[in-house]
Specification:
There is one protein chain. With 383 residues, the chain is of the alpha+beta class. It has three domains: 89 residues, no CATH class; 90 residues, OB fold (Dihydrolipoamide Acetyltransferase, E2P) (Beta Barrel); 172 residues, no CATH class. 48% of the residues lie in helices and 14% in strands. A five-stranded mixed β-barrel has the order 1-2-3-5-4. A three-stranded antiparallel sheet has the order 7-8-9.
């Protein structure tokens, strides 16, 4: 424990040096990017917001090189002993959430994360006195970084009094929906999420007869409404058999599709085992190009394939589905579109997807269905 306490005390000095390192001119654009992403419409930066922005900047923001600032800081400091280097690099694993205060244990604060449902033992490099204002059953918005088997406060603590329970739950529900990777830090919730997705995909296949269905854009909303009603009936029946009516009063899921998707012609609705439920507009022309590569002589078919390839919001899934049908034909299509005579899907396809669809490879895939706790579920979608 002495070594841990020494690192806790040293962490404050290192964090100050790290923040100072981030003020180099070469990081100005990165600061603007992080500030823009987290300020929203409020362009005023108070002290608390500035600290939070800097914390995200130095620990989590990926620079164009793919590195974080803390990685570059450590690389520049050959004088740092191994425990300090390991501690700094460990700080990339940030826990963010809404926490319920359980109790104090000396200088340690024990809290339960409303988002990932895990319990954390937390220290501060300013000492345990900073936790004095946090009463049991009150709440706080905070960020933690690893410190051995415990955690260290990183950034500003935003306390919420006991009477603000509903506010805390609503913030936690919104955070879980916006940032599911925070919820899935809990291995049991991750496993439950995959179970839910497998069950939901099974219902999709039983309703449509396949995991990939083509629907005219003008009929998309009605067909998906029918599927949602089918799913709701099955889920409610399963819950009733378990003696629960917790979702009986929940309204039917409404699908609000953007006009561009509705007006794109044929839409492919694919429920993939890993990628979950996804919609691909203008799929008719895309699929026809992979069925009859000669159609690529017509600009609209070539452009459709290029659009799918260049749009970084489109996953690799459509290309993989076409290649699964006929890898030789997929190779032919991409040779024509890319102008690469030697392109071979089986040899070059994965590399191409990683180049053009990088964001889909930056993180491990996560379930699309979230196992929200019963206490947060009523607050999903609340103002």
């Amino acid at each position: 424990m002495t070594a841990t306490m020494d690192l806790v005390e040293r962490s404050g000095e290192l964090k100050t040096e790290l923040i100072e390192f981030s003020r180099k001119p070469r990081y100005k654009q990165a600061f603007r990017e992080v500030a823009s992403a987290h300020l929203g419409e409020d362009r005023m930066i108070g002290e608390g917001k500035l600290i939070d922005i800097l914390d995200r900047l130095v620990l989590q923001h990926r620079l164009r090189s793919g590195q974080t600032i803390v990685e570059q800081f450590v690389a520049s400091r050959s004088d740092l002993p191994t425990p300090e280097r390991d501690m700094l690099l460990g700080w990339r694993d940030v826990v963010e959430g809404i926490f319920e205060v359980v109790r104090r244990d000396g200088d340690v604060l024990i809290v339960a994360n409303l988002v990932d449902e895990l319990t954390y033992r937390v220290r501060s490099n300013m000492g345990g006195e900073v936790f004095r204002v946090l009463r049991p059953r009150s709440y706080m918005i905070a960020r933690f970084v690893p410190m051995g088997s415990e955690w260290l406060v990183s950034g500003v603590i935003h306390p919420i009094v006991r009477s603000g329970r509903k506010v805390a739950y609503a913030i936690a529900a919104e955070l879980a929906m916006k940032c599911p990777e925070l919820l899935f830090r809990n291995p049991s919730l991750l496993e439950r999420g995959w179970e839910l997705q497998r069950s939901d995909r099974d219902r999709f296949v039983r309703f449509f007869g396949t995991d990939m269905v083509l629907i005219p854009g003008t009929e998309l909303a009605e067909r998906m409404r029918q599927y949602a009603a089918f799913s709701r009936r099955e889920v409610l029946a399963q819950l009733a058999a378990q003696g629960s009516d917790s979702l009986a009063n929940r309204s039917l899921v409404e699908f609000d599709f953007p006009p561009d998707l509705v007006n794109s012609g044929t839409v492919a609705v694919i429920y993939d085992e890993t990628d979950g439920l996804a919609f691909f507009g203008g799929f008719g022309e895309f699929e026809q190009a992979f069925t009859e590569p000669a159609l690529l002589d017509q600009p609209r078919y070539r452009q459709r394939v290029l659009d799918y390839l260049d749009d970084d919001s489109v996953s690799p899934l459509p290309f993989r589905r076409m290649a699964d049908r006929d890898p030789l034909r997929a190779s032919d299509v991409l040779r024509r579109v890319l102008g690469r005579k030697s392109f071979d899907w089986q040899r070059d396809g994965e590399k191409l997807m990683r180049q053009r669809k990088r964001s889909f490879f930056d993180r491990a895939p996560l379930p699309r269905l979230l196992p929200i706790s019963t206490r947060l579920a009523p607050y999903v979608g609340s103002p």
